[in-house]
Specification:
mainly beta; single chain; SH3 type barrels; about 10% helix; about 35% strand; 1 helix; 5-stranded mixed β-sheet; globular; 3-stranded antiparallel β-sheet
């Protein structure tokens, strides 16, 4: 019997929909490797955090294997393609609620490592209790 499909792409789509329905800004934390098509000048510490809000993306397609869309960086439209396996988290910018996932390990020799939001990247506001609202999924 074949193995069932991963729940990861379905959970990513569900959290994205929830964020949009609540008026929140969905952020996607991505591990960048050779299979990830993003503007390299915005990659920090092997990762990038992307705004997936409807006003920030054009032609967003959230498939089971790849997330693709166009977005503007410094006023220039660019096509992005992110393997679902490289998604480390999706969360609401406003309150940090969302889900974290095990992301694909970086390719050997690639510039990536597991991404965590840094001071230069957007990150969720701390929860009132000081704890993150992210739920880690393996």
């Amino acid at each position: 019997m074949s193995e069932p499909a991963s729940t990861k792409p379905y959970l990513i789509r569900a959290i994205h929909e929830w964020c949009v329905d609540q008026g929140f800004t969905p952020y996607l934390n991505v591990v960048v490797d050779g299979h990830t098509k993003v503007p390299r000048q915005y990659v920090k510490d092997g990762g990038i955090v992307l705004n997936l809000g409807p006003e920030a993306t054009h032609q967003l397609v959230m498939g089971n294997e790849t997330i693709s869309f166009s977005a503007r960086f410094s006023g220039v439209s660019q096509a992005l393609s992110i393997p679902v396996a490289n998604v480390a988290a999706i969360y609401a910018r406003e309150n940090g609620q969302g889900m974290a996932f095990e992301a694909a390990p970086a390719e050997s020799g690639a510039e990536a490592s597991v991404a965590t939001p840094s001071a230069e990247e957007p990150s969720p506001e701390p929860a009132p209790s000081g704890r993150s609202h992210l739920t880690r999924i393996k």
